[in-house]
Amino acid sequence: MSPAATSPPVACTVCGARYEHERLVVSCICGGLLELAPPAPLTSEHVDTLETGPWRYAAALPRVPAAGRVRLGEARTPLVPVRIDGADALLKAEYALPTGSYKDRGSAVVVSLLHHVGVTEVMDDSSGNAGASLAAYAAAAGMRCVVYVPASNSSGKLAQIRGYGAELRPIGGDRAAAMRDAAAADGAPFYASHNRMPAFIAGVSTLGFELWEDLGHAAPAVVVVPAGHGSLVLALAHAFRALRSGGSIDRLPRLIAVQAQTRSALSAAWSSGRDEVTALDHGPTIAEGVAAVRPLYGGQLLRAIRESHGDVLTVTEHEIAAALRDLGRLGHYVEPTSAVAVAGFRRLAGSNTATNDTVVVLTGSGLKSAWPDAEMGEMFSG
């Protein structure tokens, strides 16, 4: 491995102020949100071939000594070819990560960074997967962890968070209510927000680098992901920019963000050609991972999708349930949020805009998405 590329700094989306990851800021002194600055180039020479999981791409991550990295046995996730409605797709099975979701990529990096600089207590707000992931890595690091979640979310995810020894704070109300309560907590542990810490996005960006290696150092034509607050979209855009900057790929893959029709603020902004996203709530969705009423980084999401010549699609609850059922019959027992992406792929296939190297990201396992027996029976009937 050649000398590492410089760890990308963090930039304020409002005033442009720059920070190092080690500063551990979750918002700028001006109050603005933080994002990863344009990435340093990444080539095959920057890949640590002795590593697996996120740290294989340590050259593109915050600086943490190898001995200080918190690990739970992360490995490359499977890329599985399938046919859906007569169209070829590649399913990236992120549910194979240690806690059952892609959030482990971000948590592995964030917790390692926090542990390295001496943080001993962390908290976050979550719809479930991020909270479980943070709780697991915090447990591995010997850190106290507090997680704010909507009380109505999947009981399996809440049980998983408790199982790692974290303190669960169920909140009456929706996802936004959990975020508000966590942000307002006085005297709380360090707010390791997966939606606000750029180090988390850096960790998730390793999914893009891994796809590039999966495909023989080539970019997929299209990547389809579910989108709530949009961490996957931002992370993949960051990774593919780094690869293009280094000459490792010659084009950006088209990023297709898929939303539940009832929570489709990003889609509404996209369709109307706006540069910012306003709140939109047409009711609940079974895909709790994309239940955000208004993405925090709406403007950045729109720019990333436009830069890639991508698209934003919406799918109905019926389409999500059908995709969930059909994924199970292909051998993939996933959560409804994963099915959102597959339902979106079906829209692409129906419009003949899917290609043979279209990747669909399966974000999380179905083993922790508990549904009442009657509802499951109806969902999987037919």
Quick recap:
The protein has 382 residues and is α/β, with parallel strands linked by helices.
Report on this model:
The structure is a single chain. The chain has 12 helices and 13 strands. The protein is an alpha/beta fold. It has 2 domains: 204 residues, Rossmann fold, CATH 3.40.50.1100; 94 residues, Rossmann fold (3-Layer(aba) Sandwich). The strands form 3 sheets. The chain has a 6-stranded mixed beta sheet with strand order 4-5-13-10-11-12, with helices on both faces. Helix 2 links the parallel strand 6 and strand 7. It is globular and about 55 Å long. The N and C termini lie far apart (52 Å).
Short key terms for the protein model shown above:
single chain; about 375 residues; Rossmann fold; globular; Pyridoxal-phosphate dependent enzyme; Ser/Thr_Dehydratase; pyridoxal phosphate
What is the CATH topology descriptor of the largest domain?
Rossmann fold
Sheet with the most strands: spatial strand order: 4-5-13-10-11-12
Alpha carbon gyration radius = 19 Å
Give the oligomeric state: single chain
Can you tell me the residue ranges where pLDDT is under 50 for at least 5 consecutive residues? none
Number of domains: 2
The DSSP helix count reads 12
| CATH-derived architecture of the largest domain | 3-Layer(aba) Sandwich
What form results from the Cα inertia axes?
globular
The largest pleated sheet is described as: 6 strands, mixed
The CATH class of the largest domain: Alpha Beta
- Strand segment count: 13
Q: How much beta, percentage-wise?
A: 15-25%
- Structural class, by secondary structure, is alpha/beta
Measured between the Cα atoms of the first and last residue, the distance is 52 Å
Mean pLDDT: 91
Helix content: 25-40%
